[in-house]
Design a protein that fits this description.
Elements lengths: L1 H20 L4 H4 E7 L5 E7 L3 E4 L4 E5 L4 E7 L4 E3 L2 E4 L4 E8 L6 E10 L1 E3 L8 E10 H11 L8 H11 L2 H15 L8 H10 L7 H29 L10 H18 L9 H7 L3 H20 L5 H13 L2 H28 L6 H22 L5 H18 L9 H22 L10 H7 L14 E3 L2 H10 L4 E7 L4 H10 L3 H7 L2 E7 L5 H9 L7 E5 L11 E2 L4 H8 L1
Parallel strand pairs: 12-14, 13-14
Antiparallel strand pairs: 1-2, 2-8, 3-7, 3-10, 4-9, 5-8, 6-7, 9-11, 13-15, 15-16
Length: about 575
């Protein structure tokens, strides 16, 4: 019996050791970290292993030996419910904003203490732990940044809410949510320039194009576009870059505009645009495959050329990538959103293939229409780097030339075709007149007649809003301090930003919006140059690209719930302000 008891004890002890070995050691389960970013905010948190969770009420962040520095606010991620307790089931990341005494200057060394406690899903709870970090803060930067930022913000902006959705939702919920965002974005002007591109690409395939092949080509185009968006987005999130400005170098824009002029010339029949025969032979002997390669290249380039519109879902994904470094999940969200944006393009491509006329005079006419649309896309791109007077004149010349070619004055032509051509001719002529009058406008080409009739003095409610322009953080901070007791709106904009121009011409031109904004001091952060000081200004406010509107209260606190990313209609803008 004694021998059996000993054996039993040994076996029990061994099983206990085996079970214990299944649990992680505390330093494996929890890996706290802390660092100071460029704006002198502290990025901190606890990386937790798989099947580990942290109690929200046990996690505390505090300063030790701060010497004139204190915590002004802490931005916290969303928590989850677990057996009746609030817990973090994913590694929580915090942004700690500091404030300082007025007399404090230069570099300051501080200690940050993190206290935490968590458990394993396997049934083991760890003892409370603490970790201290020694950090160095440039208090001069802290002063300029925090005076501008302000932090009495309880409500989150739409961008931050979307970023939290990625942090707290399951993988498939994230993909479905961002796919829905993409479908909604496909109905905005962001995607419209791609419609003539994909239609022209499908039409250019010529004879033998079936609906099935049109669908396949459209899908390849959209997938290539999605890959480009995803790569560009992940890089922007990781490096904090301005997603739109990356490809706004004038020579890049000129080169890409030239590509569309070349495509237009091909559609007009000046030459046949195709790969050299020697290259075709090397790539494949299958002509269909060559067609798919060309469409994929065009889809990839189109995403980069047209440039993504910065909207809340895109900015939310970029914020998530920037804060967590999780490029895989953030990239998956961007890819899903891009596919959603491409649904409309696939429908357009399939329609172009299904309803394409049989070879003959109609086919020539269709090619010429899409050739004119390609020229329109090229001019639209040049709007980013050329004055509006030049691009409006280009639209006018293309419109007048095409309408005459299309039969505006052809008495023997089809009446419907001649009527459409005549309307295009009259509109293009109005554009030409607006340029000569020194008031170029695409939407209201004859608007200059109204102002002339009023003696060149616009009514009070039609005067444009006046913004004070800044290009650096120092300029902005000085202006904010000067207007401390007033409500302030900061508008991030750029000359190459199409959505910014739309805001100016539609939303900011609305009389009700102008009346409401008369209560605000209006500041415009001009990031056209995208130089070092403009990048620092954007980075201080977490802006990945214009347009973005940020609102301050009378104490210079950012009202984050009011932050607007992307274009917004006048009605929605007014409702948002209320």
């Amino acid at each position: 019996m004694k021998l059996l008891n000993k054996i039993f004890l040994i076996l029990t002890f061994s099983l206990g050791l085996l079970h214990a070995s299944a649990f992680l050691m505390p330093d494996q389960a929890f890996k706290p970290y802390a660092k100071v970013n460029d704006t002198m905010q502290i990025e901190t948190g606890v990386k937790i292993a798989k099947d580990i969770y942290l109690y929200v009420d046990k996690l505390k962040i505090e300063l030790i030996d701060a010497k004139g520095l204190s915590i002004q606010s802490i931005t916290k991620p969303a928590a989850s419910e677990h057996q009746g307790d609030k817990v973090y089931i994913k590694s929580p990341n915090f942004i700690v904003t500091l404030k300082k005494d007025a007399s404090l200057k230069g570099m300051q060394t501080i200690k940050l203490k993190i206290s935490y406690q968590g458990c394993s899903e396997q049934g083991l709870c760890y003892e409370p732990s603490t970790k201290e970090f020694t950090l160095t803060v440039d208090t001069d930067k802290l002063s300029s940044t925090n005076d501008a930022l302000g932090t009495k913000t309880e409500k989150k902006s739409e961008t931050d809410s979307i970023a939290d959705t990625i942090k707290s939702s399951s993988f498939f919920v994230i993909l479905a949510t961002f796919f829905g965002f993409g479908v909604l974005l496909s109905l905005t002007p962001c995607v419209f320039p791609m419609i003539p591109i994909i239609s022209g690409v499908i039409i250019s395939q010529g004879e033998g194009l079936t609906t099935k092949k049109a669908f396949a080509l459209s899908l390849v185009y959209v997938l290539a576009m999605a890959v480009a968006y995803t790569i560009a987005g992940v890089l922007a999130g990781v490096f904090g870059a301005n997603l739109q400005a990356a490809l706004q170098n004038p020579w890049v824009v000129y080169s890409f505009a030239g590509i569309f002029v070349a495509l237009a010339a091909s559609m007009f029949g000046f030459y046949e645009l195709k790969l050299p025969d020697a290259l075709v032979t090397k790539v494949s002997t299958n002509t269909n495959r060559n067609g798919f390669i060309g469409v994929a290249i065009m889809g990839f380039l189109s995403a980069l050329i047209v440039g993504p519109c910065v909207a809340a879902p895109l900015a939310g994904a970029l914020v998530y990538i920037g804060q967590t470094g999780d490029a895989l999940l953030g990239g998956a969200a961007l890819f899903s959103m891009s596919i959603g944006m491409g649904v409309l393009l696939v429908l357009v491509g399939v329609s172009a293939g299904k309803f394409m006329p049989k070879p003959g005079p109609w086919m020539v006419m269709v090619n010429e229409i899409f050739g004119a649309l390609m020229l329109g896309v090229a001019i639209w791109m040049l709007e980013k780097v050329l004055p509006s007077s030049v691009t409006t004149l280009m639209y006018a010349i293309v419109g007048i030339g095409f309408s005459v070619h299309f039969g505006a004055f052809d008495k023997d032509g089809h009446s419907f075709k001649r009527s459409l051509s005549l309307l295009l001719f009259l509109y293009s002529l109005a554009l030409f007149m607006s340029v000569l009058a020194g008031a170029p406008s695409i939407k209201q080409p004859l608007g200059f007649l109204k102002s002339q009739a009023a003696g060149t003095v616009l009514p009070a409610n039609e005067k444009k809003l006046t913004f004070t322009k800044v290009t650096s953080l120092d300029e902005l901070n000085a202006l904010l301090k000067k207007n401390r007791s007033k409500k302030i709106m900061l508008d991030f904009a750029a000359d190459w930003c199409t959505a910014c121009k739309e805001l100016e011409e539609v939303t900011f031109a609305d009389p009700r919006v102008k009346e409401k904004l008369s209560e605000y001091v209006l500041i415009r952060a001009d990031v056209t140059a995208n130089g070092a000081k403009e990048k620092a200004l954007s980075k201080a406010y977490g802006v990945f690209g214009p347009p973005v509107m940020i609102f301050f209260d009378k104490d210079l606190n950012v009202e984050k719930s009011k932050t607007i990313v992307g274009f917004i209609e006048p009605e929605a803008f007014l409702k948002h302000l209320q």
